[in-house]
Write a structure and sequence with these properties.
This protein is mainly alpha-helical. Helices cover 53% and strands 6% of the residues. The chain has 10 helices and 2 strands, in the order ααββαααααααα. Strands 1-2 form a two-stranded antiparallel ribbon. Helix 4 (74-84) packs antiparallel against helix 5 (90-100) and helix 5 (90-100) runs parallel beside helix 7 (121-130). It is globular.
Length: 212
């Protein structure tokens, strides 16, 4: 389902993907984004540090020129990369995700986690490479992702189910055991990060991560 193609409505949808404190930055980013005849697809809601945001499932705007992007502040560039990580073209998504995956900004986290639950293996590999601290107890990345997942257990459960589905549909021949699939490895690290935050187990929605 797509959002109604009305400029004011589209602006509201994109602004809702970030906390209100970033509203001015989002407006600045939107000013350099080419318009699209296709509206964003229906958002999904998550909680980021106590605030609810609604992130578009897909975005169809062409990328702005490099000169326009360079004129943005660091925060505004982060907003731009987050939005284009929802682009309908997988290569565009990957390029922008690689710019935010290591970000310490909490509002970037749901954009990354959502992408773990998609089918493009190259994107999942890029995420794993950008999160080396996720498997390190006490690291900043582990705390950041653990807190987000602990606040959004239903979203994480849906992500788990999507990872299993895409593995079974597209990647089972290459990764015969689910535990060897890069998406599973990421899920397990995220699960451990959340458990470290809350001190209790999370319900599992994936096969046990056995590799044999």
């Amino acid at each position: 389902m797509q959002v109604q193609r009305d400029p004011a409505n589209v602006a509201h949808v994109l602004a809702a993907a970030f906390p209100p404190r970033l509203a001015g930055d989002v407006r600045r980013v939107m000013a350099v984004m080419p318009e699209s005849v296709t509206a964003p697809m229906t958002p999904f809601e998550v909680e980021v540090q106590g605030e609810t945001v609604a992130i578009p499932s897909r975005l169809y705007n062409e990328e702005p020129g490099a000169e326009c992007a360079r004129a943005l502040s660091e925060t505004q560039q982060m907003v731009l990369h987050c939005l284009y990580s929802r682009h309908h073209d997988g290569r565009v998504r990957q390029r922008h995700l690689e710019r935010i995956v290591a970000s310490g900004e909490p509002c970037a986290v749901p954009f990354v986690v959502q992408s773990v639950g998609e089918h493009v293996l190259e994107i999942i590999t890029s995420i794993a490479q950008g999160l080396p601290g996720l498997a390190e107890p006490g690291s900043a990345q582990r705390r950041l992702y653990g807190e987000f997942i602990a606040r959004n257990p239903a979203f994480f459960a849906r992500t788990e189910r999507r990872v299993v589905s895409y593995w079974s549909c597209y990647h089972r021949r290459e990764y015969g055991a689910f535990g060897t699939y890069p998406g599973c490895v990421l899920l397990e690290a995220m699960r451990a990060a959340a458990v470290e935050q809350v001190g209790t187990r999370l319900p599992r929605n994936t096969p046990p991560p056995r590799v044999g």
